[in-house]
Specification:
The complex is a heterodimer of chains A (382) and B (258). By secondary structure, chain A is of the alpha/beta class. Chain A is 27% helix and 26% strand. Chain A contains 8 helices and 19 strands. The chains are: A alpha/beta (382), B alpha/beta (258).
């Protein structure tokens, strides 16, 4: 790849220091481009921190996502090599775990829903196995004894998103990228329809190409002729502390109305509400009650565990729940990498590679062709 | 057909007799496409779950000006709760229409009739156009109409069950005696359930889960539209009497050879 720092496309400004901006920056810096990343707060502290890090391409597949599922599967399959490369580049662990994921049903109604989802997911060619309640409890003995059935998805694993963000920060800096924290991009500097830099209050940072990776805040960048249709989708979460020597779970487990993600250090992450509440940044009694009640129903042994942390985050929700990857409409030189909704961690490897390739060579990866910003123009509203 | 046969509620006319709920779709685009396919003109939205921040990509922003909004008080359990939620909706969504839901318990999601009557009475006196979600009890429906509700919305089956209309006798009785429009609400599982509701004499059908949780929500929305229209036409046309013994549709006498 090009390493010519005098090439007209070599100075890159990235808006947003979440896992998406960091990983794209890392790839571009590795290719020898001059990368400056602007984060108004601290890198990796918004959705990238709030996420659970599930690599759940199969069990999260929902009707209407037939186009998105292959992208998620492709990125999931890229994670092991991506994790290995990232750990080697940063010298830091990222906590990739590949025990698979279980979805459990407790009541007859749960079983019906599980069966319907299982049939749909299998029809997409996803690898899944139906388990009896007894077989599920053999794999996870602390599950509610009433567990009636489960689905096992062998290839859906997890990564520790907080560790991965921290590693990406180091990898980006080691590759020569510069991270500017506490710096807010206030607009785009333009020459005609071409972007020539980013405005930082009263001064301008010149750039040949700009990446907008500001997650749920992407629409708020002033001066976009076509703001991307991304909105905040609030999620409340919490974590409990298990004994790392005797964890209650080994797999990621989805129960009715909750998911449970066990980390190597004994943390059990519990998520998540899905709320259309704008940027409302409060934990609520109802949100925490719903999470704890669903967790307790799935895994009764949690009753004695200490609560470690409670937090919320904003998924960058796109209208069709799929990311927006491609050149912005109406602004030459502006790349969009946003709208990853609940799949940001999962889609990091493919986003980083495909977006970097588009910026370095102009090549559009077949696998992301369906996710350009053009699909929303004109809006297909009712 | 629909243009000559409008649905009238509280002096307002609608071309479609299908009300759609806005919750639980896989994503916003599937919801928008389902809404278009359903032909629904009335959309019910949970006040407590809607994003009222006006950020620009919320559901309310996307449907603005395209549908008649019917805010609902989903999640409310007391009269006070429901009245405050209705007032918030009037403020934020600029409508005095309210679908009044007062849920008695989480297991059945059955309406709490005693609270419902009190809240309906209070909201009507406060100037609201009230459409209460209620049990399929003719007496309750009559009492709700008596306090001034603009329509009644008896359930076909518990919310989200998709069990269809469990007591068609009661629904037909309510339709026959009601002085206000009857909107079958909750329990619809598939298009024939919606058609049956219309054949029993309902003025409209409200549904949500049957579409939003279908494997192909957009196609199911179109099916519901056809079901409602078919059922309505059948109702207006008049069904034949049911007989116990066969009767050939072609004449059997006077044929050659007999």
């Amino acid at each position: 790849m090009s390493t010519d720092l005098n090439s007209p496309r070599s100075r890159i400004a990235i808006i947003g220091g979440g896992i998406i901006g960091l990983s794209i920056g890392w790839r571009l810096a590795q290719a020898g481009l001059s990368v400056d990343l602007f984060e108004r707060d601290q890198v990796g502290q918004s959705a990238s921190r709030a996420a659970a890090g599930m690599l759940a391409a199969a069990v999260e597949a929902e009707p209407g996502e037939q186009t998105l599922v292959p992208l998620c599967v492709a990125s999931r399959e890229m994670w092991p090599a991506f994790a290995q490369e990232l750990e080697a580049a940063s010298g830091l662990p990222v906590g990739l775990r590949q025990e698979g994921t279980m979805v459990v049903a407790l009541t007859r109604d749960d079983v019906e829903t599980l069966r319907s989802n299982y049939d749909y997911q299998r029809s997409l060619g996803l690898e899944m196995e139906w388990l009896t309640g007894a077989a599920a409890k053999e794999r996870e003995p602390f599950l509610n004894p009433r567990t009636a059935a489960a689905v096992y998805s062998p290839r859906d694993g997890q990564v520790d998103n907080r560790l991965a963000s921290a590693a990406l920060r180091v990898a980006l800096e080691k590759a020569g990228g510069r991270i500017h924290e506490g710096v807010t991009v206030t607009g785009l500097e333009m020459a005609g329809s071409r972007v020539t830099g980013v405005r930082l209050g009263d001064h301008v940072h010149a750039a040949d190409q700009v990446v907008l990776a500001a997650g749920a805040w992407s629409r708020l960048l002033p001066g976009l002729p076509v703001p991307p249709p991304v909105r905040p989708v609030k999620g409340q979460m919490l974590s409990l502390q298990m004994d790392p020597a005797a964890p209650l779970l080994r797999h990621v487990v989805w129960g009715p109305k909750c998911y449970l993600v066990p980390r190597a250090d004994g943390t059990l992450i519990v998520g998540a509400t899905t709320e259309e509440k704008g940027f409302d940044n409060q934990m609520t009694a109802g949100g925490v009650l719903a999470l704890l009640e669903a967790t307790w129903r799935t895994l009764p042994g949690v009753e004695e565990l200490p609560i470690k942390e409670m937090w919320h985050g904003f998924r960058p929700g796109c209208r069709d729940d799929a990311p927006i990857l491609g050149w912005a409409l109406g602004v030459e030189g502006l790349m969009l990498a946003t709208g990853h909704h609940r799949n940001g961690i999962l889609l990091t490897p493919i986003t980083a590679d495909a977006v970097a390739a588009m910026m370095l060579t102009g090549h559009v990866d077949e696998r992301i062709r369906a996710f350009g910003p053009g699909r929303f123009a004109p809006a297909r509203a009712a | 057909m629909t243009h000559q046969d409008p649905l009238k509620i509280a002096g307002k006319s609608f071309g479609s007799r299908l009300f759609l709920g806005s919750a639980g779709y896989p994503n916003q685009q599937v919801f928008l496409d389902s809404l278009a396919a359903s032909g629904a003109e009335i959309l019910t939205v949970s006040v407590r779950r809607a994003d009222l921040s006006g950020y620009g990509e919320g559901l309310l922003d996307l449907v603005a000006g395209k549908v008649w909004l019917l805010p609902n008080t989903a999640g409310c359990a007391t009269v006070k709760d429901a009245v405050l939620t209705a007032q918030l909706a009037r403020e934020a969504m600029d409508t005095n229409w309210i679908k009044l839901e007062l849920i008695g318990d989480r297991e059945t999601l059955y309406p709490d009739v005693e609270q419902l009557l009190r809240a309906a009475d209070e909201l009507v006196r406060d100037g609201f156009t009230v459409l209460p979600y209620c049990t399929d009890d003719p007496i309750v429906c009559r009492r709700l109409a008596d306090v001034g509700c603009a329509a009644v919305m008896p359930l076909g089956a518990p919310i989200g069950t998709g069990l269809g209309i469990l007591n068609p006798y009661n629904i037909e009785h309510i339709c026959r005696t009601s002085t206000v429009p009857v909107v079958l609400d909750a329990g619809i599982g598939t298009a024939s359930d919606a058609a049956l509701a219309m054949e029993l004499g309902c003025d409209a059908v409200l549904l949500n889960t049957a579409v939003s949780k279908s494997t192909d929500p957009v196609r199911m929305a179109a099916a519901m539209r056809a079901g409602v229209e078919g059922g309505r036409m059948a109702r207006l046309a008049g069904r034949i009497p049911k007989r116990l013994r066969a009767e050939a549709s072609s004449p059997e006498l006077g044929l050659i050879g007999t």
